[in-house]
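Hello,

Our lab assistant flagged a job as stuck in the queue for most of the afternoon. It eventually completed. Since we weren't sure the result was trustworthy after the delay, we are filing this so someone can double-check. Below is the sequence as submitted and the structure that was eventually returned. Let us know if re-running is recommended.
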Amino acid sequence: MSNFQRAREALGLRLRELRRDARLTGRQLAELRGWHPSKVSKIENGRQTPSDSDLAGWAEASRVPELAPELIATLRTLESQYMEFRRLFRAGMTGKQQAIHELEATTTFLRNFENVFVPGLLQTPEYARCRLAEGVDQDGALDDLTSAVHARMQRQQVLYRSGKRFHFVITEAVLRYRLCPTDVMVEQLDRLVSLSALRHIRFGVIPFAARFPVAPVHGFWIFDDQRVAVENFTAELTITRP
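-- returned structure --
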């Protein structure tokens, strides 16, 4: 179970306690707030994430309105673990690149596995443009593509700082998927060869013939021993459990 789901269930249990302390049934709470009865059950059982207004209304109905700020602060912590791309990219993609840059700058040992595309720190500008364009086309991001590509290239300066270590592993599929024009991919492959020669970078490719003990369903980044970042089609998950 992910950190996000555990935290959501913990919030649901807290809300259930408040409701019961107020001697309200789930149906009574739903009627007071004008909600469908199933909404209370879903929130309490960690199957639905409440909004700020949901929490404020819950606290009011439970006769503890003073707890609303505390509950909303808990929600903010929860949301920091799971961030939907459409909300994340609402103001553009450049800010996200800059935030990653700050995290990479404070990381001594960065490990990155990718099963579909070339790691961002190893991308050429044109390959990065093809990748980031998906944020505009698929996630509805503000079109700051040129700025976002520049920010991703700025991130790559960390590769040349002393005291840093990097370990990149990709699948052979990364080298073969047609995610960009052929000439862009040829240039990208040449860059991978060059960067793999740097002494502080370990770079590996898992061939198609290799047997996987665990299915490589998604890529991930490990920042020292502090956090793991995982992306799926629609969101990014931050995991901090050891």
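-- support follow-up --
The delay was a queue issue, not a problem with the job. The result is valid. The first strand starts at residue 82 and ends at 84. The beta strands are 82-84, 109-114, 165-171, 201-206, 220-223, 227-231, 235-239.
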